Amino acid sequence: MAHKLVFTLQAADDLNVLERTPNLAKRLKAVRKALAYLETNLRHPSLNTHAFTSMNGANGEKVYEAYAENKTPAAYRIFWHYGPDKSSITIIAITAHP
């Protein structure tokens, strides 16, 4: 099942920063690839998707973390939850892992 991606203002800003920063082109490519997997296959092994218990969505939704990069210093992660409808997922943030 394909999902429609809905971006919060924070996630849209995070993606915009990646797109405008030339030295982050490799990271942007990895994030775009991960977003494509989120649209088409939430269970793709490279996403390593798992529940993220330290945060809830705006309406108490269960939040998940997906990997855009792995085994990389400050690897990028994508935080998301299901909704607002059955065919959508909301991207909450796209950020470097501390």
Structural features, described:
The N and C termini lie far apart (32 Å). 29% of the residues lie in helices and 34% in strands. By secondary structure, the protein is an alpha+beta fold. It contains 2 helices and 5 strands, in the order E-H-H-E-E-E-E.
Please tag this protein with its features.
5 strands; 98 residues; alpha+beta; globular; 5-stranded mixed sheet
Could you give a short description of this structure?
The protein has 98 residues and is of the alpha+beta class.
| Distance linking N and C termini | 32 Å
What structural class is derived from the secondary structure elements? alpha+beta
Biggest sheet overview: 5 strands, mixed
**SSE topology string:** EHHEEEE
Topology:
Blueprint: E1 4-7, H1 9-20, H2 25-40, E2 50-56, E3 62-67, E4 76-82, E5 88-96
Parallel strand pairs: 1-5
Antiparallel strand pairs: 2-3, 3-4, 4-5
